[in-house]
Design goal:
195 residues, mainly alpha, 2 domains, two-stranded antiparallel sheet, 2% strand
């Protein structure tokens, strides 16, 4: 083994398929859209997986019937997955550019295929987020914990209830201490209460 030189080792070159043209990709998107409920099904039991395989085989047969380079099921799945990912990235960049301040020209519109992929997958969590969820994370501007609207409202209501409780029970000493602490941490609430 030590006598084998690196130049003697033959490298097997991977055979490449033709690139997907826009018409084939649009046709793939149309076929996926017809079967999106099965393809995006979250169930992973035997019957559902079998149906998914059948749908992808049907889509592969339809794409190959159009002519061009023959494609396998795995190639079409991968192309669709990467196309959806690229459409999501393009959509997010476009949204970010639309909400920037400072004027300037409008960002270019999404391509027809990206627009279609966004419409097909609009209700999936990867595009629209998880419904009825509370999101916690760091605020990129301040580095502090970012609070959602729900959390801010909850904190304000808790503060108001505490003040009412203190007034009812005449705990003025504790109320003043709490209000001082709350004022130093929540200027926006105190400013809105002074009106």
């Amino acid at each position: 083994m030590a006598d084998i030189k690196p130049d003697c080792i033959l490298k097997i070159k991977r055979e490449r398929s033709e690139n997907f043209d826009s018409a084939t990709l649009a046709f793939l998107c149309d076929e996926v859209e017809k079967n999106i409920d099965i393809i995006n099904s979250k169930q992973t039991n035997f019957i559902t997986n079998k149906r998914k395989q059948q749908v992808w085989q049907k889509i592969t047969d339809a794409v190959n019937a159009r002519g061009g380079a023959p494609r396998s099921v795995s190639q079409l799945k991968e192309k669709y997955r990467k196309s959806v990912s690229a459409a999501k990235i393009a959509s997010n960049i476009r949204k970010k550019e639309l909400f920037k301040t400072g004027g300037g020209s409008a960002p270019p519109p999404l391509s027809d295929i990206s627009q279609k992929l966004c419409e097909i997958n609009d209700d999936t969590p990867s595009f629209s987020g998880i419904a009825n969820s509370i999101e916690f994370g760091t605020n990129s501007n301040s580095g502090k914990l970012g609070l959602t609207l729900f959390t801010k409202i909850f904190l304000k209501i808790s503060f108001i209830l505490f003040i009412l409780l203190c007034k009812i029970t005449n705990c003025v000493k504790h109320m003043d201490l709490f209000i001082y602490t709350e004022m130093s941490t929540s200027q926006e609430y105190c400013c809105s209460n002074q009106d």
